Structures are given as structure tokens and as C-alpha cells.
Amino acid sequence: MGVAMWIRQTVFRAVWCLSVAVGAASWSAASPAVFDKTAVCAKLNTCLCRVTVQNKWGVPLAFAYGFVLGNGRFVVTELGALAQPGVAKAVMRFRDGSEVTADQFGMADPVSGLAALYLKPGVSSRQGLAPAQTLPPLGGSAVVPRMGWEQGHELRLAAGRLIAGPKMVELAARTGTDVTRAKWTFLRIVGKDVAGVAGTPILDREGTVLGVRIHVMTRMATAPLVVPATALRDALFSSKPELKPLAEVPEAAWQVRVLRVEGQPVAPAQFSRGVQSAKDGMKCRACDGQGYRASLYSGYRYTCYTCSAEGIVCTQGVYPALAEMAGECTRVAWAQDIEPRARKAMLATGLETLKQLADAGPQFRKAWDSAVATDLLGTNRGFPRGIVVCGRVGQTVQGPDGRYTFLETRLAGVPVAFRATPVTKPTVPGPIGTPAAPRQGTYIVLGGMILATFDTDNAYTAPRPRQAKPAPRKRGKAKSALPKPGPALPVYVLPFGWLPAPSAAQPPARQRGSPYW
Fold it and tell me: Which of 24-28, 135-139, 424-428 has the lowest mean pLDDT?
């Protein structure tokens, strides 16, 4: 071993040990009988973060939550979210809006289901939380931070009680997992308003970490458990500290709930009201959705000129309602602990709406394409957000974690990409619809949620836009000096389903023929 390598490993071991010990000293002087909510919230505001797991293209693969450990060199998060095919980096977004990227980890323990992401020196100066060396008697009070489902919501603290959970052998038998070396017991947090997301810490009244929440998938349902802080410390010190790339992260021993898209699934009743509101907004009010109007004098029926006999219109507010419906369908499709019958019913309603859009006429399609272009070309639109788009299926290229299909939009010129995998059954997470991958050159209607823009590293070549014939210039006027727009980055869409649609040149399936019928 060279001298430089020996010095590097020695310094790393010292930093590793210091990172898990320095936080304890900062909280040791506090009185356990006093709970300063303002001080705890101020400390949590700087160390709680959302973790976005990405491949090398920048496509989000999963979302998790975590907290800074000790002196700010590591972020503890759940291992199940990191163990995704093609993972290359993790982007941590803190509550103040700052972002830090990590591409290495220092600890990944399959039994506890936790990992420690390495923060390079100089990228962040944050004081973190320290894990407790010993656990207090069970049944005592604990503090649970609630970050909400989306980063940026108001931080709230809830008081609960820490009690004993299932033993390792019991959970292994319940989940069918073979875990022999670990003998510790999981914990549980009970109390009013203590629900939270995986990866967040459970604290005592001094602000020391008593455990970390994880969500283990059993054969019947999801079990929200707490990994005790003693198990976290054992995992940190049980092996030789060594930095490794995220591509080498191991899989967790337990099947955990992976958050593919942020947001809590909507209730079925609320979803039905949203879909009905979107349908009511689409129906042409001039003809009440019939496509024709009757003369008050002669009684003859003639074409409704508002909707051109299509029965539906895409006026202001229609596309946002459709996009919101698509976003809710995506959350339902990829949620891992939703009731199967409710999932099937809600996604069937979403596919019925896609079918209605696929049969829309040219007037509605033109207004719809314009609304999609406005959405994709907007500069102040955040992620994630729903989208319902009709386009031509283009190239399918090999990505870091599988094959991606690109959808060519008509007016926006922004490629829409989604994973080119066959759709799955309604009883498991994933999109439903036509049980096959879409063929290149055909037109489809795609419903899903935009998660991010990304760069394919020249793996995908956008087709050249058709050049329209320039308008004749009038004599004496100079040529316009408007800059040509550059190539737009594609957007990644997590789909809930898709259906075939006729091209713009083909007559719609709902063509009524003669205006008098």
C-alpha cells in the first residue's frame, strides 16, 4: 500500500468516527426535562432533506428522505430507494432550497435497510444529528418530525411513544427473508399524528436520534417500523469504512416501499369528483355535448359551430384539469400499498378518459396540442406535474436502466420520454393499458407525470423540425433578426397508461359525417 493511500484511508476513518460522535456533545448539555420546540425545529430545518435517486442521465428513479449525520459529512437515508438499477447519483434538497449531489456511500447495511451518503468536503457545512449510544426505557416519549409528502411543506413535530416492535426472526418469517446474523429488535412509534415518511429520524427531547423510520413490505401490508439508533451505530462501526460508488450499493434484505413519485394517493371519492369535473369542462355547452343544435323554427338539426360536431371542446381550464387527473392516476398506479380493487377502478376511469381523448376530433386536437406546447415550453413550471399528450412514437434507445421510448409532440418540439417496458397487471404497481410496447411511427395518447428534464448524452437524436416556407418579404422591410431556439431537452414522464390514437391526418373515430343527421 502506498503512503498516499494509507494517509487517505487514515483520514477517512477519523472523519467517519468523528461524524457520528460530534453531534452527541452538542446536545449533551440540554436538560431532558425541557423540550425546546423552536430549537429542535431550527436544527431539523438545516439537516432534513429529500433524496432524489437518479441515473447518469438525470432521470429520477426513486425518492427518499434523510438527515445529516454528526458533523455534516454523511446523510443517512433508506437503502431500498438507493438500490435501483442504473443508479449513479443522489441529489439531496434541503428545506432552504439548496441542493447537494452525492455519488458515493460510506455505509450500506442490508439488514437495517439504511445507507450513509458521502458529502464531499466543502459542498455543505451543516451540523447534523447524533445517534444515541444507548436507548432509553421503552414506553417513554419521542419526537417525530413530519416533513409532509413534498419537500417544502411546513415542518411539524408530533409527540409519540417508542415501544418494542417485531423481533428480527419474527419479521424474517413474516416476509420470507433469511436473516441470521442480526439479533436486534425493531421498534415502533405510536401516538396521535405520528405518521411520517421513511428515512426521517425519531428523536428524544434533547434532539438525539433514537431511531430511523423505514417501511417494510410484508405479505399482507406495509409495516412502518423504526430501526433503533444502536443498530445504526453498529452498522456504522461494524465494517471498515470505505467509500464506494452508488453503482455498487447492495440491495436491502427487506422489501421496502419505494416512492417512485412524490405525493400521497388521492382518495377514490375525491378522484371521482376530479374526473367528473374534467369531463364536465370538456363538454360543449352550446350543444350540451351532442355535436348538433336544433332550429327553433324548422326543427332541423345543424352542426354546432362551437365544437364542429365533436361534442367536446378544449377551452381554458380543461387541460389543467386533465393534467391533474393524470398526475393523480400516476400516484395511484405506482403506490405500493393501495388496495388493489381501488387501484383498478381508478385507473380504469383514467383509461376511459384517455380513450375519449384518442377519439377526439381535429378541432379539439388542435387546441389540445396548443395547451401541451404551452405547458412544455413554459419556464416557470415545476416538477412533478401531470401531463396528457398525443404524439408520434419515435426512437427507442438503450438507457442506463433500460430502454426509453421518445414521443414526438406536434407543436412544442419537446421530446417526451418514458420507459419502453410492457405494461403490468392492475394488481401490482405500474401502468396499465394496452399490454404491449407502442410501435414506432404510430400515434398514441400518453397519460402520466413529468418528473424532470434530462440529457441523454447524445444517445437520442431529435428529428429535424419541418421547415415552413418563409412568407414573402415586402420591399423595403428588413429581415427579422429573431434568434433561433436551441434544441430542447426531453422531459421524462412516469406513465400510468397509454392507448393508440389516429394520426392528425386520419379522420377521428367520432366523425359524424354529414352535418345534418
Answer: 24-28
Q: In CATH, what is the architecture of 11-248?
A: Beta Barrel (2.40)
- The pLDDT-based confidence of 12 (bands split at 50, 70, 90) is very low
What's the pTM value of the predicted model, to 2 decimals? 0.84
User: Could you tell me which of 253, 256, 208 has the C-alpha nearest to residue 228?
Assistant: 208
17 vs 37, which has greater pLDDT? 37
Query: Could you state, in order of their start, the residue ranges of all structural domains in the chain?
Result: 11-248, 278-458+488-501
Which of 450, 444, 458, 369 is closest to 413 using CA atoms?
369
Distance from C-alpha of 73 to C-alpha of 105, rounded to nearest angstrom: 11
Cell digits for 372?
A: 401541451
User: Which of 176-190, 216-230, 286-300, 467-481 has the weakest average pLDDT?
Assistant: 467-481
Characterize the bridge pairing of strands 491-501 and 416-419: parallel
| Four-CA torsion 299, 305, 306, 308, nearest 10 degrees | 110
Grid cell, residue 221, equals: 401490508
* Residues 150, 264: Cα–Cα separation, whole Å: 9
Confidence (pLDDT) at 24: 41
Distance CA 489, CA 491 (A): 7
d(CA 66, CA 54): 16
How many distinct helices (H) and strands (E) make up the chain? Answer: 9, 21
The x, y and z cell numbers of residue 349, run together, are 376511469
Round to whole Å and give the CA distance between 314 and 1: 69
Cell reading at 444: 398514441
10: which 3 cell numbers? Answer: 487514515
What pLDDT does 230 receive? 92
21-35, 242-256, 333-347, 467-481 — most confident range: 242-256
